[in-house]
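Project standup — Tuesday

K.O.: blocked on the structure for the chain from last sprint. Re-posting the sequence here as requested.
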Amino acid sequence: MILITFLFFTALVGFLTWRFTRSDDHNSSTGYFLAGRSLTWIVVAGSLLLTNLSTEQLVGLNGGGYSHGMQVMAWEVWSSIAIVLMALVFLPRYLRGGVRTVSEFLADRYSKGVGTLVSILLLLSLLTNLLPFVLYSGALFMRDVFGVSGLFGGNDTVALWATVVALGVVGSIYAVFGGLKAVAVSDTLNGVGLLLGGLAIPFLGLALLGEKMGDNGGIAAGLNYLFENKPKMLNPVDTSESANIPFSTLFTGMLFITTYYWCTNQAIVQRTFGSKSLAEGQKGVLFAAVMKLLGPLYLVLPGIIAWHLFSGELGDKGDLAYGKLAMAVLPTWALGFFAAVIFGAILSSFNSGINSATTLFSVDLYKGWINQDASEPQMVKVGKIFGILIALGAIVVAPFIAKASGGLFDLMKNLAALYNIPLLAVVVMAIFSKRTPAIAAVVAILGGFAFYAYFGLYQQNTIFGHTLHWLHVAGINFVLLIAVMLAIRFIKPRSEAYQQAHTGEVDLSPWKFAVPVGVVVLVLIALMYFGMSRIGL
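H.V.: unblocked you, prediction finished:
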């Protein structure tokens, strides 16, 4: 029954995606990479949320909730601040320039060399940070739900490799042959199922918790048990610097890393580049910001529930908590449906990463350096070939993540800081300083990468004898890079202030409710932290 419902829903999404996109333009770079700039707000929002929400979130973040409690909700709730910044500050600049990639924006602002350097770093980030983690976390979930190990004589390692390969191949087909429109449509369809299934798991988990703890009160009894037994796990505020996410880091590295992810990460922002207008893009982005506030309910709470139910069985294996809870609370037919939705979420993040990689390579490297006279069909063809190669690379890297120590989500974010902070600093200065020269961007990228590689990874977050939380190290890196770029700007500024041209590709009239909605989101974040910290106490 699990397999039947899984295949039915997966086939339905595939068929509907084909129906909606079969007549799309896949021969031009704008049609293939940006969906012809035709995406409405609901598709932008759905694609943003599903690109972000995959098994590295469901498995990894719930694993963090299992191990550290509600403090890990910062990765979700604090992201809404960054998404508001994307809607009000970054998106208008991107759409004004009619860019297809972040590095194209930087090439116009600084120089072609800076754009190329950023493209290379973004491709490395996709290959070593995003794509392998999506495949690995997805393979963990799918392997356990479908009992894949049984097909290989109980060998979990071989089963993991086989599942990674299967996910990688199917995801590549979506991304390479469908383009951005197919990715965005399938994201939106899967988003409906993921919302229903994702929200059902914590409520069913609470009911199971209430029942297993000797009370037939269902959800209410489960909640009451959480409030009375180790309520500190429900508190998102931990002022100890030894905590997984100390409260102080929300205002340093956490703010900068989430801003990079939602405002400059090609795999995410490419969805917004396809908006049919600035107003549609802002509506979609801000709707995603509101939906992220629900994240703790289905991305952290299930992990906490699983700790109360299965900690004796799972021990410190927090990354297995979400799959264990899903299999415990969902009936057989629903488990197949939910596995199909999770499968869609895996494909969403994976094929979004592949689509972004093909865009970066074709637009910035192939057209920019290798074949400057390349036609639009040539760019698309070369992009597809490169997409296949990057997918193969991710498939090879993914299984080796199992050998790394620490939680899946923490490992992914820690590694991401290597790339994120220098790139964010360069984009921020591109927007707010019109006379910062290209050499400042090059120094920041290379210096920031070297700083975190040495002090963050090699010295294990120790700076001149002082050991800090890795998020603080990331925050210090950002501040230093901004200071260095400002110093270069005053010593050797651009001869003329940069003026961004409006290409006229989309209507730049803003959504009239963008600022009020952004303010409401920020107020809700403050209320969430205040209210939940009271419960935790």
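K.O.: great, moving the ticket to review. The domain at 2-405 is CATH 1.20.1730.10 (Sodium/glucose cotransporter). The chain is about 75% helix and 0% strand.
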